[in-house]
Amino acid sequence: MESTPRSRYEPLRLALLHRLRELHDELQSAESATLADAAVTAHEVSDQKDAADRRQASSIDDAVQRHEHSEVELVLSALRRLDEGRYGNCQDCDEPISPQRLQVQPAALRCAACQTAWERHGPALHPTP
């Protein structure tokens, strides 16, 4: 008996949902930490080095949070594609994405060849919808 695309991808759906929960937890923790740090900093006496260290740490935290927000969008997009029956095919060439690639990167939009081309030439040649 051949499995349906939906059941074939069920382990990947579960992995995507797990990753989504992790990302939400990480973002919530980061937001709580930012609020706590702001409260402590407001009552602290510091010098220029302390202020520079805090700005650098804040900049790094902001970059991590932007990356996590982007990953949330990719995971949600993959879950939508699963629900719509479009999951597992490359958005550029419409060929199947290898099961090994999906296992490693369940939110992958492109097959390895198209992803390499996209990274090499940028989104101008292969825009993301």
TL;DR?
This protein has helices spanning 5-8, 10-42, 48-84, 99-104, 112-121. The chain has 129 residues and is mostly helical. The longest helix is centred in the middle third of the chain and has 37 residues, at 48-84.
Please tag this protein with its features:
129 residues; mainly alpha; 2 domains; 5 helices; 0% strand
Q: Topology, please?
A:
Elements: H1 5-8, H2 10-42, H3 48-84, H4 99-104, H5 112-121
Please explain how this structure is put together:
This protein is mainly alpha-helical and 129 residues long. The chain is built from 5 helices and no strands. Helix 2 packs antiparallel against helix 3. The longest helix has 37 residues, at 48-84. It is elongated and about 60 Å long.
